[in-house]
Amino acid sequence: MNKKELLYYLSSIGFSKKIINAFEKVKRENFVPENLKDLSYEDTALSLQEGATISQPSTIAFMLDLLNLEGKEKVLEIGSGSGYVLALLSHLTKGKIYGVEIITSLAERSRKILEKNKQIEIYNKDGSKSFSEKAPFDRVLISASADKLPEHLYDQLSQNGIIVASVKNSIFCIKKKKTITKKEYPGFVFVPLR
Ligand code: SAH
Question: What is the CATH number of domain 3-186?
């Protein structure tokens, strides 16, 4: 597929104009390794290094949709890899966006690609623990899959906040209102959280 075809595909499966607009604005080829540039607009995950991948566009769209961004939220992405999703997020909120990536070379590369974007800050660290320095977050996106729900992050989530997390082979949408509610969407494949 080329970019136009990918955008058409994403809208044909029902994603909103807002989500499609973000995909239209961001050049995925800038985040894809040189040798895979030709595949930039295929709806597949692409290898980065050390087992990391740049996620599949339709899976990213699904997770962004669940995040239900209205325009001002402060967001944390754990497992920000290439930085592609951080770039997409910056078209969906005007709030601060924090990325945490454990692989140093990916954190550095993504920082470089996104250096002009003052909304985004990337940290090279282990995101499996809490990230209290910048908490609370209105939204948290966990792009590498853990074995269990990220209960340790519930305290770092604002009231009415949402966590979209990959857990094993499912996506969980966790909402914090008076109580915590969870919804599971099975049938996905993710890079494991270390
Ligand atoms: N969303 C990114 C990458 C998804 S792959 C993109 O589209 O490019 C998941 C990423 O999570 C990988 O880059 C992997 O290195 C990272 N990761 C795995 N365990 C992690 C941990 N404990 N802390 C931070 N990042 C982690």
Answer: 3.40.50.150
